[in-house]
Amino acid sequence: MTDSVKLVFNPAGSPASARGFSAIGVHAGFRPDPERLDMALVVADEPCAAAATFTTNVFCAAPVRVSREHLDEGAPGQPAYGCARAVVINSGIANAATGERGLEAARETCELVGEAVGCPAAEVLVASTGVIGQHLRLEPFATGVPAALAALAAADGPEARADQGLAAARAIMTTDTRPKHGAVAFSGDGIGYPGATFTVGAMAKGAGMIMPNMATMIAVITTDAPLTPPDLSAALTASVNRSFNKVTVDSDTSTNDTCFALASGAAAPGGPTFTPGTPAFAAFQEALDELACTLARAMAADGEGATRLITVTVRGAATADDADAAARTVANSPLVKTAVYGHDANWGRVAAALGRSGARFSQEDVDIDILGLPVCRAGLVVDFDEDEALRRFEEPEVAIEVDLHAGEESTTMWTCDFSHEYVTINGDYRS
Amino acid sequence: MTDSVKLVFNPAGSPASARGFSAIGVHAGFRPDPERLDMALVVADEPCAAAATFTTNVFCAAPVRVSREHLDEGAPGQPAYGCARAVVINSGIANAATGERGLEAARETCELVGEAVGCPAAEVLVASTGVIGQHLRLEPFATGVPAALAALAAADGPEARADQGLAAARAIMTTDTRPKHGAVAFSGDGIGYPGATFTVGAMAKGAGMIMPNMATMIAVITTDAPLTPPDLSAALTASVNRSFNKVTVDSDTSTNDTCFALASGAAAPGGPTFTPGTPAFAAFQEALDELACTLARAMAADGEGATRLITVTVRGAATADDADAAARTVANSPLVKTAVYGHDANWGRVAAALGRSGARFSQEDVDIDILGLPVCRAGLVVDFDEDEALRRFEEPEVAIEVDLHAGEESTTMWTCDFSHEYVTINGDYRS
Questions:
Q1: Partner residue facing A133 (CB), from B56, B348, B355
Q2: What's the CATH number of domain A7-301, 3.20.20.70, 3.60.70.12, 2.60.120.200, 2.120.10.30?
Q3: Exposure check for chain A: N or C terminus, fewer CB within 10 A?
């Protein structure tokens, strides 16, 4: 991006932060606890550009199929984009492994939201997160959607609207211990839109890519920048590949993973759209990347039972695929993750994971740092200060840095440690 | 194999069970505890056919490289075979990530054993298991090897020799809670060797493919059947692919994984070798498979902190690779493994793992049984008796059976559950 563009991060932001959008979370009744929000609605003032990335899991859930249809997607795993007016998300039930009846429920949800909002069902995107194999009831939508729209209409001023946006972020939580949301703003000065300020807002849920049973990572991103659906899709795909796709808690890709992006253009009405190759598009991409990476890190840090965020950086890989394979194998290694939990700078486990990752390198070339301490040079052990390592393990983030010295490619993955609590949560989840 | 051949399994067998071989374990001094056996020696009366499979980990250990050289192997991952007289294995130190000095130590170990046994160093195979990144001392070999040979020479009768074989199995243990060994015998009647009885004996260590830091799966198989080195290699590779390569505890392939096979021919001296395509070779292959699968299951069941052996069977896969990918992804899923630990017949986690495995199938076709109970049919939930499931979880072995209905291929993988104890062992290992 150009040096003159400055990004301003707002940790209290949400999908409601971008002009042209409202967002709210309500208790609709998917969950028994009346205090627990369980339905989020994001509504655009006008039909707007929309794009999405979806899980590649063969066992994809009904809402994934229906949202794909609504975005005219071709094959699974391909970019999906089109036009949308609203996004509805329930938590508690994943509507996965529910067959034809599940597809019907997802379609009826879109009908119901379309009627209430005043748009075709095809302009409604839907996502679900929760238990697999249970059927979704429509009654909570029938009461929850009108209640949500009434509350949005009654919102009095920007503060109330901001609070509603934060409620949306809470409504999509499952095993998350914290809501995940934010916004990034950048000025149009210097990128061809003088006087304008553009905002990207987002919410996400997911304690890592972690619980297929609680059906997993969902994000909604809004922006008031003007983009065409294919350009929005290109930016989203690039950003997701650098952020959410670099998070792994237990090597899982769930049945329901979904990331939606909507662009209203409301910050520059009538202005030209941001086009790839322009400073404006570069600024938008950077804002989107920053927001998505922030939320991705928050997911990894909120991994079930996590006590530490682990950042695995691999440099010097021969190809981008090698970098990804090496970093992903280290980040997914239960032995690396339990070592971090035990505050053990155990580079042998990192080396063994690298060695079986499929990445090409020579063991004689490998350097490994843990927590900033060189622990392996040229494939050989380096004496390091174990006491200093133990001190550094007190930090909430543990950096594992690898240089394969096999090329120029690099990447970063985020994960968390494996704790007793992880076993407790996942061993006792349904009981 | 022909119906007339009967396999007889001997749980008290070891590499010493096959004629023409002696085996023993001693305390040589790699470990501080004088009560703990830490060096195993297997010696053939004469130079004999030898074959091996080794880890494909790029960070392979020095003894792997040296044993490969001694078996004239081409590329890593390719079959290795040749002639050998002795196998020496130490536990406590893996001699991995030790550079040139490590290679030198492994070569000197072979020199030392060769001199003591009376054979060229190139006829000695070497393996190590233990901590990565520490250098191997030669002094324990210098005293341990002569002591082992003296004890073998002093052995008085078959019982003493059998006990020595069992000591060898104990000497290679690291985090194993139980020694792993056995033998299978079959008669030569009906397969062209009337009056002869052939034996395949083995020992193995490895609590699953589990601790790179403790450097991992090692097996030594002996037989008194007559085979040429390439035929022995072919049988060994086939058998390892059906057994040890189907065990996964935490998705790891260690730096030191090694499986040696030696064939003396002593049960049919002067007779023709077993040739692929003959009943004799088929009988040998079946005996080898049974022994290797028994030891592989024992490894999975002895996974660190394991409370249950998990057997994952995938049927109806389009290809053998699809079957392997599907079964392996389920067996490696921390969510599946924690669910079994929690006695939860959570088929949603199995489905999600299948869906991301890369195997080709339609979710509408998938059937899943857990512990013999149908829990998913045609991709949809099946009501099952949760109390009955809880009762069945009391068994030591948990069967997860999948039919993808996408073809004719099938496979079985073995793993174990993920327990609090696993986290404790691996989180606290070095401290």
A1: B348
A2: 3.60.70.12
A3: C
Domain ranges of chain A: 7-301, 309-427
User: What does the alpha-carbon distance between residue B192 and residue B199 come to, in Å, rounded to a whole number?
Assistant: 16
Structure tokens that stand for B207 in this block: 């609590």
Tell me the chain B residues in contact with residue A418 when contact means C-beta distances shorter than 8 Å. Answer: 334, 423, 427
Q: What is the mean pLDDT of residues B170-195?
A: 94
Cβ contact (<8 Å) for A381 and B334? no
Q: Residue type at B289?
A: D
3-class SS of residue A221 = strand
Distance CA B73, CA B84 (A): 14
CATH number of B309-427: 3.10.20.340
Cα A356 from Cα A362, distance rounded (Å): 12
Give the length of chain B: 431
B7-300 has CATH 3.60.70.12 classification: yes
Q: How far apart are the first and last CA of chain B?
A: 51
pLDDT tens-digit readout, A218-238 = 999 999 999 999 999 999 999
* Contact with chain B for residue A246, Cβ under 8 A: no
Low-confidence ranges of chain A (pLDDT < 50): 1-2, 208-215, 429-431
d(CA A40, CA A36): 12
- Distance, CA of A238 to CA of A245 (rounded, Å): 10
- Residue with structure tokens 């022994």? B291
DSSP B360: -
DSSP-derived 3-state class of residue A10: strand
Q: Is B199 strand, coil or helix?
A: strand
The distance of B397 to chain A (nearest Cα, Å) reads 17
Rounded to an integer, what distance in angstroms lies between the CA atom of residue A287 and that of residue A303? 25
CB spacing of A99 vs B364 below 8 angstroms: yes
Tokens of B244: 């040890």
d(CA A376, CA A390): 17
Could you say which of A133, A342, A351 has the minimum Cβ distance to residue B97?
A351
Question: pLDDT class for B390, splitting at 50, 70, 90?
Answer: very high
* Distance, CA of B247 to CA of A102 (rounded, Å): 37
Local structure of residue B96 (DSSP, 8 states) = -
**CA R_g for chain A:** 22
The CA-based dihedral angle spanning residues A286, A289, A294, A296, taken in that order and rounded to the nearest 10 degrees:
-170
- Other C-beta atoms lying within 10 Å of the C-beta of residue A321: 13
Q: B276: closest CA among B224, B223, B230? A: B230
Q: CB contact, 8 Å: B326 with chain A? A: no
Nearest-angstrom CA–CA distance, A183 and A31: 28
Question: How large is the average pLDDT for residues B69-92?
Answer: 85
In angstroms, rounded to a whole number, what is the distance separating the alpha carbons of residues B366 and B377?
6
Q: What tens digit of pLDDT does each residue of A169-190 get? A: 999 998 888 999 999 999 999 9
